[in-house]
């Protein structure tokens, strides 16, 4: 019984060794020098084809690669099909709707696409490119490009040239003739006459300051890249134009209101009167050296009033308010904004050219003119020399020498005097 049990155990052990034979054959046994324990290394896992290291790249570790050798993954699309470049528009429209010549010709022609936005909120939401138009002086092309050509090929070069011509002409006249007149506004002799009331001066200077802000900012925005950008650089020039653009937008409404006040304030004395035509034909006597007689405002000032303040001023204000989107009940679409900009730019350049002459006469061109507007008073000698008809009316009592409430004012010598 005992012998039989021993045989059974021996057979079971032999079978166990036979089963463990293949696993032992895959293991390696190493004995370190000088004896010690043995270590069995596990067999490496079978690598797939994607995990194989490319030939010649070395063994193990993170491998380096030139980023320019890495090709982007290109997914197959309609352009990958054989004969794609030879497809006709009908075939192209089947595989790539929208990527065909007729579709883009329609877009360039002003065709509108689908949009979920209501027309009242976004009237041009479905329109990518404006339809072709032909503005004066440019060829038939899309409206945006036509506006750009009018601005860059006509308004900028010819408008800038006009302003330069006016400045050069005034400079030549000043150095050739010098200041006009023989006496200052005050100190020439005779009674003091109130030429401008405090209200008239306040209205004038408010409008003048607003105009200067608009003119300087407009010139920088339109022409600054030609004479400021090379000097200041892009960063400073960009900051300057950003600030002036905002100043332009805020000064516009102030100019509009003050312009209306100026118009109605000085309307009474700017109607055509006797002697105006003669003054115009003789250029006011500026070339002959003897100034022609005129009323409170001469014919040149009346041209500035009616042509600059009323006509050009109204056009500039209306188009400017439209560009600022301050007018209710109008459609602010691209076509209307482009036309408004062209009208605004042309009228503004003409207005600046006209007002440059007015500013010249009122500052350095005529003795006493600036003092008259700054302090409001002139004396009889100045009034007779420059506005003889007006002086005759004052002398005859038709026009009062003091039209506002008398106030104490300081004279040039520092003494306090009361106007006559």
Name the features:
420 residues, mainly alpha, Fumarate Reductase Cytochrome B subunit, two-stranded antiparallel ribbon, two-stranded antiparallel sheet, 4% strand
**Rounded average pLDDT:** 83
**Share in helix:** 40-55%
Count of individual helical segments: 12
Largest sheet: 2 strands, antiparallel
Q: Report the C-alpha radius of gyration, rounded.
A: 44 Å
The sequence of SSEs as H and E is HEEHHEEHEHHHHHHEHHEE
Give me the secondary-structure category: mainly alpha
Total number of strands: 8
- N- to C-terminal distance: 158 Å
Shape: elongated
**Unreliable sequence segments:** 23-50
CATH architecture assignment of the domain at 146-195 and 267-417: Up-down Bundle
* CATH secondary-structure class of the domain at 146-195 and 267-417: Mainly Alpha
Assign the CATH topology of the domain at 146-195 and 267-417.
Fumarate Reductase Cytochrome B subunit
What order do the strands of the largest sheet run in, or round the barrel if closed?
Answer: 1-2
Beta-strand percentage?
under 5%
């Amino acid at each position: 019984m005992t012998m039989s049990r021993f045989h059974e155990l021996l057979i079971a052990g032999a079978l166990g060794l036979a089963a463990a034979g293949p696993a032992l054959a895959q293991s390696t046994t190493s004995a370190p020098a000088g004896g010690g324990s043995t270590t069995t290394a596990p067999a490496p896992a079978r690598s797939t084809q994607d995990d194989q290291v490319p030939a010649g790249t070395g063994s193990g570790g993170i491998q380096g690669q030139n980023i320019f050798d890495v090709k982007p993954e290109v997914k197959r699309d309609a352009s990958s099909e054989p004969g794609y470049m030879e497809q006709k528009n009908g075939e192209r429209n089947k595989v790539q709707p929208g990527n065909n010549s007729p579709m883009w010709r329609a877009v360039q022609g002003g065709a509108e696409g689908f949009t979920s936005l209501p027309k009242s909120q976004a009237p041009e939401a479905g329109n990518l490119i404006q339809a072709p138009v032909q503005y004066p002086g440019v060829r038939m092309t899309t409206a945006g490009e036509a506006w750009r050509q009018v601005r860059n090929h006509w308004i900028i070069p010819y408008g800038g040239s006009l302003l330069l011509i006016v400045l050069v002409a005034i400079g030549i006249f000043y150095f050739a003739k010098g200041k006009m007149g023989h006496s200052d506004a005050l100190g020439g002799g005779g009674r003091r006459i109130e030429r401008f009331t405090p209200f008239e001066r306040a209205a004038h200077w408010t409008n003048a300051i607003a105009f200067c802000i608009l003119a300087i900012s407009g010139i920088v925005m339109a022409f600054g890249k030609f004479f400021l950008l090379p000097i200041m650089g892009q960063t400073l020039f960009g900051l300057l134009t950003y600030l002036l653009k905002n100043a332009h937008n805020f000064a516009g409404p102030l100019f509009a209101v003050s312009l209306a006040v100026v118009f109605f304030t000085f309307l009474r004395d700017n109607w055509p009167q006797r002697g105006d035509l003669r003054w115009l034909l003789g250029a006011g006597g500026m070339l002959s050296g003897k100034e022609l007689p005129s009323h409170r405002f001469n014919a040149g000032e009346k041209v500035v009033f009616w042509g600059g303040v009323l006509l050009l001023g109204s056009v500039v204000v209306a188009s400017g308010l439209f560009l600022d989107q301050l007018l209710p009940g109008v459609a602010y679409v691209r076509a209307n904004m482009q036309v408004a900009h062209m009208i605004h730019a042309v009228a503004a350049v003409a207005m600046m050219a006209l007002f440059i002459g007015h500013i010249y006469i009122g500052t350095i061109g005529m003795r006493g003119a600036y003092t008259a507007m700054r302090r409001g008073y002139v004396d009889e000698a100045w009034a007779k020399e420059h506005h003889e008809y007006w002086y005759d009316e004052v002398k005859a009592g038709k026009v009062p020498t003091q039209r506002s409430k008398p106030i104490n004012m300081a004279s040039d010598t520092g003494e306090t005097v009361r106007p006559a």
